[in-house]
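Hi support team,

I've been running sequence recovery on a batch of backbones for a student project. Most finish fine, but this one hangs at about 90% for roughly twenty minutes before it completes. I'm not sure whether the input is malformed or the queue is just slow. I've pasted the structure tokens below so you can try to reproduce it. Let me know if you need the job ID as well.

Thanks,
M.K.
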């Protein structure tokens, strides 16, 4: 089998960063004049706006990317994280992986559900493969189930 790799989608992160920044600025500036009245709602609105704006700036500035590589020759799963602030790699040898499973994240009663493929090591540690990055298919269960099964086939080979 050949190496299989997938990389996060930086355009989604950029889009979310722009939305957070814009919404944060609208809230912070919109409640700026109302804060003078001293109501708790106005202060909370301005604080939420400032928080959203900071999250937006961080998402835009970090330029975070994650690459997951399943390498059957090296018999490992390599998780490579890159941002403007740091770079990190983690190798998980096939022999240390006890289970590959699909996890649901989010509210199952009306909210958006995203999915992640998680490696469980023999020592009990869980290693999320697609969090915290923005991967295509993260909100589509069949796509993530397919990725889970693909990684399992690599481990079984």
């Amino acid at each position: 089998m050949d190496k299989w790799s997938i990389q996060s989608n930086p355009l989604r992160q950029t889009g979310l960063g722009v939305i957070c920044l814009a919404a944060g600025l609208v809230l912070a500036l919109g409640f700026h004049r109302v804060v003078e009245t001293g109501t708790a709602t106005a202060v909370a609105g301005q604080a939420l706006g400032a928080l959203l704006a900071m999250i937006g700036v961080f998402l835009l500035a970090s330029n975070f990317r994650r690459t997951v590589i399943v390498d059957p020759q090296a018999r490992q799963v390599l998780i490579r994280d890159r941002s403007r602030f740091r770079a990190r790699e983690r190798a998980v040898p096939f022999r240390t992986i006890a289970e590959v499973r699909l996890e649901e994240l989010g509210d199952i009663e009306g909210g958006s559900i995203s999915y992640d493929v998680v490696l469980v090591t023999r020592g009990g540690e869980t290693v999320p493969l697609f969090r915290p990055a923005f991967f295509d298919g993260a909100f589509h269960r069949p796509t993530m189930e397919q990725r889970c099964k693909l990684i399992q086939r690599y481990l079984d080979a």
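--
Follow-up from support: It reproduced on our side and the slowdown came from queue contention, not your input. The radius of gyration is 20 Å. No action needed from you.
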